[in-house]
Amino acid sequence: MPDTSNSAHQDLPSASGSVETPSDKELIPVYWLQADNDGVYLYREYARAKASGDPVTDAISYMLNDKPAKDGWFTYLKPSTDIGVSISSENVITLDLPKKVFGAHLDEGLAQRSIQQLVFTATAAAANAGVLNGSQPPKLRLLVDGAANATVFDDYRLESEYERNSSFMAPIWIIDPQNSSQFAAGKVKLNARSVAFSDGLYYRVERKNTAGDWQPVDEAQRVKATELDEDGALSRELALSPGEYRVTLWGQNNGSGAKIARTTSMFNVS
Hints:
Layout: E1 28-36, E2 39-47, H1 55-65, E3 84-87, E4 92-97, H2 108-129, E5 139-144, E6 151-152, E7 156-157, E8 172-176, E9 181-183, E10 186-194, E11 200-208, E12 214-216, E13 221-223, E14 233-240, E15 243-252, E16 260-269
Parallel strand pairs: 4-5, 9-16
Antiparallel strand pairs: 1-2, 3-4, 6-7, 8-10, 10-14, 11-12, 11-13, 11-15, 15-16
């Protein structure tokens, strides 16, 4: 894990921080940090967690105590099962955690990202479960051992309330297929989210051959910014025969061949 949030980075477009829509999935959204050449960003996993009856508690508990689905995803927050959650009629989620959760020694940038990891996970879980009221954007009120405005990560003082900060979201992430997922032969859905790159979003599907090497199934596919949904969503169907696959997405800007914010997911078709 990086010691600082500073890194060489591309001039990335801004992301949309809109919350998830209600879903009937038996899965909960959990956000993780990942460090790459472009910076340290938040990525979302849909995880299967023990159901306590409170979706926010389940999501935060999974993030603090379980392992992410993909190598390279992580959190600086320490494990704990002592989690208090309440939600007001104004969509303010109060999350009370013990001080030990914030025991890492972090610079300001990584402290901000760790707090936003809690903000995104809590608000996503509430939105996904359909427990928010109306269209008012949710906020997170973070308490430490019952106290507001606590000092965490050595010297980072918490604000009274937090909203999502979209600048910490990954420029691109793959929603489906999730890493290590299994599918029956036929149509596999590719669902992803991306910011708008001036030259477009690209994706390539590769299949592992008998020698263990990755071989492109087809040429890299370009998706123009105008082909993305308003929130940056991309949906495609991939016709795939049995085998081991990986799909890679990246963005490109006009006048440059640099592959920006490249991300990969591996999956199996049987």
